[in-house]
């Protein structure tokens, strides 16, 4: 449900902000108007999650501060983070890899930090 909600919020915001044509990653949309990087994406996703939380629409998760990984100096990457309120497990909510309006990847934060991305499995990196 979180994936679908974030995707829908991206669609709504994309129309208003001019980011509807935003493409996943940095390379495909380089130089395009409205193209965003992972800092933009993680900030927006954290904002969307915070709005859902404020309206009591996150029942089993709580928004956390964004996370950063930087295995390589040129490979710094940011993501939004949620915490499962029962288990305490942290999850990355990463919309950067996908085009505007596509449901973001959600995975355990430790896997995301270890760069075990769904995007890598899909051949996107």
Strand-helix topology:
Elements: H1 2-17, H2 38-54, E1 61-69, E2 77-84, E3 90-94, E4 105-108, H3 109-113, H4 118-121
Antiparallel strand pairs: 1-2, 2-3, 3-4
Helix pairs in contact: 1-2
Summarize the entry for a quick read.
The protein is of the alpha+beta class. The chain is built from 4 helices and 4 strands.
Give the fraction of residues assigned to helices.
25-40%
Query: How many structural domains in the coordinates?
Result: 1
Q: State the order of secondary-structure elements, H for helix, E for strand.
A: HHEEEEHH
Q: Low-confidence spans: pLDDT under 50, at least 5 residues?
A: 121-125
Rg is: 14 Å
Shape: globular
Helical run tally: 4
Strand order of the largest sheet: 1-2-3-4
User: What is the beta-strand fraction?
Assistant: 15-25%
**What average pLDDT do the residues reach?**
89
- In total, the number of strands is 4
Q: Determine the structural class based on helices, strands and strand pairing.
A: alpha+beta
Q: Give the N-to-C terminal Cα separation.
A: 26 Å
The major beta sheet can be summarized as: 4 strands, antiparallel
Structure overview:
This protein has a four-stranded antiparallel sheet with strand order 1-2-3-4. 34% of the residues lie in helices and 21% in strands. With 125 residues, the protein is of the alpha+beta class. The chain has helices spanning 2-17, 38-54, 109-113, 118-121; strands at 61-69, 77-84, 90-94, 105-108. It has one domain (2-121).
């Amino acid at each position: 449900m979180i994936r679908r909600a974030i995707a829908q919020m991206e669609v709504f915001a994309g129309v208003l902000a001019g980011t509807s044509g935003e493409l996943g990653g940095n390379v495909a949309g380089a130089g395009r108007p409205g193209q965003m990087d992972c800092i933009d994406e993680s900030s927006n996703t954290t904002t969307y999650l915070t709005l859902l939380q404020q309206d009591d629409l996150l029942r089993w998760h709580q928004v956390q501060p964004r996370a950063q990984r930087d295995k390589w100096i040129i490979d710094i990457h940011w993501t939004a983070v949620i915490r499962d309120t029962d288990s305490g497990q942290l999850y990355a909510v990463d919309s950067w890899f996908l085009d505007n309006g596509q449901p973001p990847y959600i995975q355990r934060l430790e896997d995301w930090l270890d760069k075990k991305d769904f995007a890598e499995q899909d051949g996107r990196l």
